[in-house]
Structures are given as structure tokens and as C-alpha cells.
Amino acid sequence: MTGVLLVGGASRRFGSPKALADFEGETLAERAWRVLGEACDEQIAVGKTADALPLPFRVLDDGSDVRAPIAGIVAGLRAASHDVCVVLPVDCPLISAESLLRLAANAPAAPPSGPLPSAYRRSALPALERKLERGDYSLRDLETSIVEIDSDELVNVNTADELAALE
Fold this sequence. Notes:
Elements: E1 2-6, E2 22-23, E3 26-27, H1 28-39, E4 42-47, E5 59-61, H2 69-79, E6 84-89, H3 97-105, E7 109-110, E8 118-121, H4 125-133, E9 145-146, H5 160-166
Parallel strand pairs: 1-4, 1-6, 4-5, 7-9
Antiparallel strand pairs: 2-3, 6-8
Helix pairs in contact: 1-3, 2-4
């Protein structure tokens, strides 16, 4: 399976690029990349190359002016060499490889709190491309299986204070 790491958020509420924020001795991007590597055969980081984030792995430009997860998911599905893709936003630092594997086993899937992290099959690409083209950036209306994941793993950090509270 392919792991798609989304690193292209604007980080307006965070105040600096979330991908570079330190958490327990590694950046959020490094941590997410490591967890994806524990679960996936292939990894693709997707974002905006114009952001020029100094990351220890290559970032595929999502090819869109839109700053929304759907743009990264579309780019990741296009580039993936596997049918199933697990999508992980960089700001979800407590997710486990085991939970990502459960999402993948039920693809298309998301937790009850959805829509991310999630798993998609490449067959979803045409529908996602159409949504992106018409300016519909929502992922909540996609048909997905619900996979129960411990809510502690789904913590999403949008501010530096939220990240500090996790440590």
C-alpha cells in the first residue's frame, strides 16, 4: 500500500509550518513519515514545493493553487503505484501504524470523526478530481467505511499550544 503524507497546509493558526514543529525529538513531518513507513510499502509526501520546506524527503507538488487536503489526496493517488492509499495529515502526531493498516484494510475508510486520516482506492481518483475541478473541497460526503480508532490517536494539532499540551 502507499502512504500519502499531506504537508501542504497553510498553518495560519499554528503561526509557522506545522510540518517543521518539534514533537518528542522529531518534527511532525518526520514522525508522520516514520509511522507511514511502518505501515506502507511506498511513501509519498505531497504539498507545495513553493513552500520550500526543509524536509528530509522529497515533496511532490500537488499541482494545484488550492490549499485543501483534497488537492494532496488527488496528487497522491495519481502518483501511487499501489491500489490502496492511506492518507495522513502532518498534524495528526499520535496515530499508529496499526490504525493506518486497519483503515487500509477497509478502504475506502475513515474514522467516525473523519475525514482524515483515511484510506482510498485509486478508483476514487476520477470522483475526487471532479470535486476538485468544481471547487468542492469537502471530503465528508465521500462514501467510506467507518473504522473505529482510539480518539487519543486522532488528536489534530492546529495551534502551537495544542501541540505543547500533548507533551
